[in-house]
User: Fold these one by one.
Assistant:
Number 1:
Amino acid sequence: MIDKWEENNKEYWGGVASNYSNTYIDNWSNLENEFILQRICYANRNPFTKVLDLGCGTGLGYKLCSSLNTKFSYTGIDISNEMLGVFKKNHPNIVTFNFGMSNLQQFQPKTFDFVLSIFTAFSYTDNVEKTINEISRVLDDKGTILISVISRYSMRRILNLKFGKKEKYKTRGISSNGFSYSWVFTKSELHKLFQPDFTNISIVGYNTLGGVSFFSKFPRLWKINLFVSKLFPNLSHELIITASKK
Ligand SMILES: C[S@@+](CC[C@H](N)C(=O)[O-])C[C@H]1O[C@@H](n2cnc3c(N)ncnc32)[C@H](O)[C@@H]1O
């Protein structure tokens, strides 16, 4: 299964690319984006200047960073050419690369001061440890990260009786015969993985209800969503880690 990991994931994300941005323009998605903006601000007490976006998709990370800061350089990478095709249509002058996040050889050490990977993109890497090492290598001293992963014991997964460390994941609201291989994490596993190279680690739960398509139709539930996620982070759909390089 692992051999086919990237090949499969390229195909899955390529297949959903044309519907991806249009699916996440509802009120619930806007609230999700607001939350990510707050976490980006939390991670970066000083303004970021050189950003690397892992699994940049159709350009949401670029859009969010641009709304906070007008003077920064941005580089997006993604394994899906189709996702990057949509990105390029929206932002023709922005630099993107088509390769997987576990191999960032293209970049010199200490090239970036902020690495982000939002809306669970990190969960789809073919190699978790290698990706963390690469992030650490390309990050400048005291550079920051904001990384989102799928939570292992989320309400969505419990309801679907899924408890393993890997999942055949389908993104919310887009029907497809395929799936993306993904890693899922608990808060303590995530902490253990990042702790050797990172400090000021904060891990928050996020979007307990949003993982279940049904609830995301009711933005009125947003505050309950935030409250439950804060109280029981592992039950949330995503875990978001922010930290700085040691
Ligand atoms: C859930 S989407 C998130 C896209 C974007 N970050 C956003 O928030 O809109 C996951 C993205 O990760 C990309 N991806 C999956 N596996 C990847 C890998 N190994 N390396 C880089 N990108 C990957 C997919 O092609 C897809 O664009």
Number 2:
Amino acid sequence: MILMMILSAEPFELIPGFLNQDEGEGLLAELDAQVAWRDEYLQMFGRRVRSPRRVCWYGDEGVGYRYSGHDHQAPGWLAPLEGLRERLQTQIGADFNFALLNRYANHSDSMGWHADNEPELGPEPVIASVSLGATRTFLVRPTQKIPGVRRNSTRLPLEHGSLLVMRGVSQRQYQHSLPKSSQPCGKRLNLTFRHVRPASADVASRLIR
Ligand SMILES: O=C(O)CCC(=O)C(=O)O
Ligand SMILES: [Mn+2]
């Protein structure tokens, strides 16, 4: 019991095969067809730059939050996501009211270094990240830079059907990214379930991803 408690407090816990091959393929096909994928643009050094992936979001109606300079208001849930949300809530023992979906068309799509540390997520959010499609490498590194010390990254292969649970200090003490891959690969969908709290008046600065 004590061991389980220690293990379950790991900031990054990877569960390969959370969805089996067929469940994952079914969900991928449904989501790819039904989701209103959209491009998102960032202001970088005074220029408008397209994010190197497509995105969409769902959640309890009225729930929303702001990241990367954009408001994301949930329009409700899409049917294929509802069963998955239930399953994740039971498995992890946390409530999720919002899901951010990312679509990486191929090896050139990516997400830069960041932490999901928006104030609406709280200081120690629990984030459930489900991967479908091509395996991509997820990198984790400490947030703190120590002069003269190289920041080593840990590599986690996010396979089709895997679940990565981020919790505890994962967003305060670490950053993560999904770099471009040198190996050509097909599409990958990533679904991150989160719990968004009502927005505070004091909205802190946002990371550009
Ligand atoms: O695609 C991934 O695995 C990473 C997604 C992510 O970090 C995010 O949506 O904040
Ligand atoms: Mn993230």
Number 3:
Amino acid sequence: MKVTIDGKKIEAKLGETILEAAVRAGVEIPNLCYIEAFGGQGVCRMCMVEVKDGEQKRLVASCTYPITGEIEVQTNTPELQEIRRNIITLLYRRAPNSDFMKKLYQEYVCPAVEVVDPAEKCIMCRLCVKACEKVGAFAISTIMRGTEKRVATPFDEASPSCIGCGACAEICPTGAITVKEENGKQEIWHKSFEMSRCEICGNYYSTLPVKEHVKEQLDNEVSGENLCPSCRRKKLAGDLAKFSIK
Ligand code: SF4
């Protein structure tokens, strides 16, 4: 079915969200908590758009609004710009120490940033929680309410289910999750992990529980080798070259 986004007619599939259709058509809608693999969460509200369905107009979060008929969408009206400015101002005040938020604040609200100094960087997008769920660890979640709301492990203690994979830190857009790597040890979320060392290059590359986790998923022939991703790729390329047609 046809959907119009900012005057551009695009083909949309029944049930996909406005944001998914827009991404496919190359139309940019600002967002902070959307990752294609996770789908829409409707958390940050940066992706609000105006939808005209017949005579009715309303504001919706494009990452969760499913397309069920022919609609017209506006992504950048003055009202939407004001909503985004307000969201970014609130998030920047919450996480002023984040360079990512500083840049957004300068771009959307005001080139001169306010001088504030708490260490907070988290904008509560929940991508880290989602990543941990996808890993299957469920080691972190949001706790408390209102301005006290934050991401944490149960009782702010080392979680038995955390395997130190670092997926949460990797996906965080603001760099709010600290991972410390030193002398063959990795620290994250109040927990310290021994790291595995690549038998070819000698670099530390993964925590031991992650190795165990991978071992459970893959056959032993592949997971039995103690290789970092880079050396594994090189070795595979070398093995394949032996079988190449001369
Ligand atoms: S490091 Fe721990 S908390 Fe972070 S995604 Fe991996 S298992 Fe979850």
Number 4:
Amino acid sequence: MSNRTFSIGGVHPADNKISRECKIETLPIPETVYIHLGQHIGAPAKPVVAVGDKVKVGQVLAEPGGFVSAYIHSSVSGTVKSIAPRADLAGNPQMCIEIAVEGDEWLEGIDTSDTVITDFPDEASVCLEKIKAAGIVGLGGATFPTHVKLSPPPGKKCDMLIINGCECEPYLTSDFRTLLEKGEQVAIGTAILKHILGVDKATIAIEDNKPEAIKHMKEVLANLRKVSTRFAGICVMSLMKKYPEGGEKQLIDAVMHRQVASGGLPIDVGAVIQNVATALAVYDAVQKNKPIVDNSVTVTGECFPRQANLLVRVGTPLRFIIDYLGGVPENAVKVISGGPMMGRAIANLDAATLKGTSALLFLTREQTVRGKESNCIRCGKCAEACPMGLEPFLLNRLSRAGGMLDALEANAVQDCIECGCCLYSCPANIPLLDVIRQSKVQVMGIMRARAAAATAAKK
Ligand code: SF4
Ligand code: SF4
């Protein structure tokens, strides 16, 4: 067991990784896929195909709509049926390309074999361009375009790449299975990322509730080091299981003992963080010319008939996945995209998966019922649990008072990472996260407007 972890707050929910023994299984291809144009942080992509076009797997459907944006590729071969708004997982209409599937024909030049290729191009710019062309975004939840994150602004230097293999959210196991089943490819993807960033050191950080993954990755790296010096400087670090260890600021604290200041970014302290699934996608892009057309999704929950980790084509309707595994259980009342702490409730089972969809979690009424809210007893447990050092009881009070946005900003509501540790810890069942999240949106809106006004005034 490890005693290495982040220094402020955190909680220890039961990990409930009941799908951990489920190997990644390839889901059949549905009859129709729905590929959203806004699958990343930043501007939505712009379509470059038209209704009636024939497309192949891996073909570009849409190109970046701005500097912070990403390419979107077809996950199937077939005919474009429509380009129109369609409800996403949250039920909000988003532009979407509908494709009727015909066969499974891949674009020429994409290597779909299982052969593992160790050597990669010397020119970092070639690797970076392939990552951009493959439409890779952070697959740990943030979906920030990876090529942008790998290009630090002038004056900022990275001295440590961290691969986030914590998967600290309860129930999720797709990263764990990826480490066990595609560990070599993850390690090579890590070496490519390290090469692009020009750093000597990379750490693959894994929580100590996954000892098999830690052991396996150490063996994989020892073998790769015998083949090439490019794997020198990559180590595996075991971290104590504590939520939210996979949060960027928490992970940097745990691995590097450095603190990112309020409003700061990991690169400010010399760190770049990528997720395990992103490292695998980087391997696929650089070594196989394969864009993101599929991703691993954990389907789980005590009430669900069959636990699974599935390799799913992007844009697959949720109902297709659920029917494949036996249908919605009668006693399930809620489905979450992601884990129980930070995941979002799914409003629409006809919605389709996105690049960043990592899990579908089914919960029963008993698992979702919240205790009756009572008055704050000033126990301070929420502040003790907050990994950002905030005072959730105070943010709650200011939010509910109304019109206290200046005070909320002064008390750093904008630093909230929406981890839910405060809500999890509160004995009075106060919906702290819901209240704080709303205030955060308002305060960040004001901060953005202020920054825009300041920029305009300078011109
Ligand atoms: S949700 Fe926000 S306020 Fe609550 S513990 Fe997490 S970071 Fe702190
Ligand atoms: S944990 Fe709940 S009851 Fe305790 S101080 Fe925080 S808000 Fe109040």
